[in-house]
Structure formats: structure tokens, C-alpha cells
Specification:
single chain, about 240 residues, alpha/beta, Rossmann fold, 7 helices, about 25% strand, globular
């Protein structure tokens, strides 16, 4: 989650507080963050495809991120950090909520993974650049999106790979991701604010302003009998990769 002015505060304090309150149950696949557990394999499928396309020889490797550094911005309790570590990366996870960082560190220790977790705004932390930068379901919680993306871009190595995912701002997402999802308890009430969603065209423009170009883009859709899956349909949610121009 992020918001404001990354050089100071890009994550809205109320957003950080909201997600901090969910830290204890983050790793419960049937708890309030169940939707993240369900979408994580879909994200990872896209990320693996992006890695294989970005680095020669990665497709043949069981640990394609070996020798590479990865940064997860808005890492929550580490749902994405841990699989990135299993792909061989030296992983740093950053989150505005100290409670999330504590939950992430405890879980990583419990499963024997060496992951560095840091609490705070990414721009204010003493970290360098990374081969892979991920920021999933974060920008919709950011107040100053151009400032946030400039700071994200500053953490990307010259030949690095960026992956982002976020809900699209459409009539369908308003009805399903906000109204229906909260009404039936699929996501906790207050998770989403539709007016803060970003369309693919808007995000591509913001990334271009930050010196990045989109290299691949897919929708994340849902269908009875298939569940969540990568799709050409971006009406609800989408995921993209980008690199420096």
C-alpha cells in the first residue's frame, strides 16, 4: 500500500493502519486475506513468464533469480517475497506497516527462508537498486502516484525488471471488486476505494513519465469452473511488466 510523497509519505497513514490490523491473519488462507492467497499463483505465473522473457537462459533454470536481488514494495506479510526467494533471489520486502513486517519476518523464519524485511517508505530506506522490483496491489493505495512511481523506478537496476498489478477502474470493478466482494466478505470492508483504481492506459503513461516502458500486460479474470486466471480481459484486474526505456 502506498500514498502521498514517497520522499516523505506516499502511503496514506489510514491505509497502512488498515492493513496493519490484518497482519496477524495474513498467512491464513481462509482468513481475511484469502483473496490474496487465491490470486498469488496467478501473479507468480505471470512473473515467471516475465522473468523467462527478460533474462536469457532463465526459462531453463529452476532458480532463475539466483544471483539476483529482488525488492517487493508493499510486501504485506510476505506472500510474494517467499516464492521469489524460492526462485533464488536475495529478497528485500518493504512495507509501511511495522506489524506486517513483523508477521512477514516471523513466517519466513518459521519456514527457513532468509528474507530481509524493512518497515517504512521505500524512498526513505537505505537500500540500493534491484534486478527485480515488484509492487502488487499497492498503487491503488497511493496518494501521489507519479512520486511513488519515480521512487519505484529509482530502485530498479539499469537492466532490471518491474512487475506491478492493480485493479482497473471500470464499472465492472466497481460492482464486483468493491460492492460485491465486500458484501460477501471476499475482501475486508474498506480494502478498496474505486476512485483510486488506475486504468492500464493511465499506469502506462505514469510509467513512461518515470522512464519505464511496458513489455507485457495481462488481465486477471475469474470464471466459474476456472477461477482466477491470466486473461486478455482486463476489466477487473491486470498485471504488467516494464523495464527502463
Amino acid at each position: 500500500m502506498g500514498n502521498a510523497n514517497l520522499s516523505n509519505v506516499t502511503i496514506r497513514p489510514e491505509e497502512a493502519d488498515f492493513f496493519a490490523g490484518l497482519a496477524r491473519d495474513w498467512w491464513n488462507p481462509k482468513g481475511p486475506m484469502a483473496s490474496l492467497h487465491q490470486v498469488n499463483p496467478v501473479r507468480l505465473a505471470f512473473i515467471r513468464q516475465a522473468i523467462d522473457s527478460h533474462w536469457p537462459g532463465a526459462a531453463q533454470a529452476t532458480k532463475p533469480l539466483a544471483g539476483k536481488a529482488a525488492l517487493d514494495i508493499g510486501c504485506g506479510a510476505g506472500l510474494l517475497c517467499e516464492p521469489l526467494a524460492r526462485l533464488g533471489a536475495s529478497v528485500t520486502g518493504v512495507d509501511a506497516a511495522a506489524e506486517n513486517v513483523a508477521a512477514a519476518a516471523a513466517h519466513a523464519e518459521g519456514v527457513g527462508l532468509d528474507i530481509r524485511y524493512m518497515a517504512g517508505e521505500v524512498a526513505a530506506l537505505d537500500i540500493c537498486t534491484f534486478d527485480l522490483v515488484a509492487s502488487v496491489e499497492v498503487i491503488e493505495h497511493v496518494a501521489d502516484k507519479p512520486a511513488f512511481l519515480r521512487d519505484v523506478a529509482a530502485r530498479l537496476a539499469p537492466d532490471g525488471l518491474l512487475v506491478m498489478s492493480t485493479p482497473n477502474r471500470t464499472a465492472a470493478s466497481r460492482v464486483l471488486l468493491v460492492g460485491a466482494a465486500e458484501a460477501v466478505g471476499y475482501v475486508p470492508k474498506g480494502t478498496h476505494h474505486w476512485e483510486d483504481f488506475v486504468t492500464p492506459e493511465e499506469l502506462e503513461g505514469l510509467l513512461a513519465d518515470a522512464g519505464l516502458t511496458v513489455t507485457a500486460k495481462r488481465g486477471i479474470a475469474w470464471r466459474p469452473g476456472k477461477g482466477l486466471h491470466l486473461s486478455d480481459d482486463m476489466a477487473l484486474n491486470y498485471i504488467l511488466s516494464a523495464r527502463r526505456v
